[in-house]
Amino acid sequence: MTVRDGDLSRAVSHALRHEPWLYELELDEEGWVPVEQLLAALRRQGGDWPAVDRGALERMLETSTKRRHELDGQRIRALYGHSLPGRIRKRPDTPPAQLFHGTAPRTWDVVEVDGLSPMGRQFVHLSADRGTAVAVGRRKSADPVVLSIDATAASSAGVAFYAGNDHVWLADHVPARFITPAG
């Protein structure tokens, strides 16, 4: 038996995004950890986990429908979704002109006044396309509200944006004046 890619992705995400201390991992300030340390931590779980190797990680990354992790030489990190107490450092990047955010209808009343905040995560998660925002919003409501973010104006006003992957952008906070219902 081998560990399925979905199970491996969930375990790697848990280790690199949420509770690295449970795996005895120390992430650097940008969220990187040596691949061999991660593999050793996963193998300690027993069962089929001792069979997990670098090839399994590479297959998981190649076949994933969402790019959540990044492999760079002998190190790996989660690209976004961190709920760690310490802040992962990101480099600001120029966003597309428009970004989207899907949420529950009851949340719009708060966002309309306060803007978008990270809540339990380190960053606000934004979608590069409306379809992804709808899918994300459906996790919160059967009939989500899709919000449009004027990223060009927000960036010009000093809001920092960070690339997560091809479909996800991150921000520290997006003020309400840059957000409208996508209609």
Automatic annotation (TrEMBL):
Family stated for the protein in its record: Belongs to the KptA/TPT1 family.
Pfam families xref list: PTS_2-RNA
Function: Removes the 2'-phosphate from RNA via an intermediate in which the phosphate is ADP-ribosylated by NAD followed by a presumed transesterification to release the RNA and generate ADP-ribose 1''-2''-cyclic phosphate (APPR>P). May function as an ADP-ribosylase.
Record gene name: kptA
HAMAP family xref list: KptA
Alphabetized UniProt keyword annotations: NAD, Transferase
Official protein name in the record: Probable RNA 2'-phosphotransferase
Entry's EC annotation: 2.7.1.-
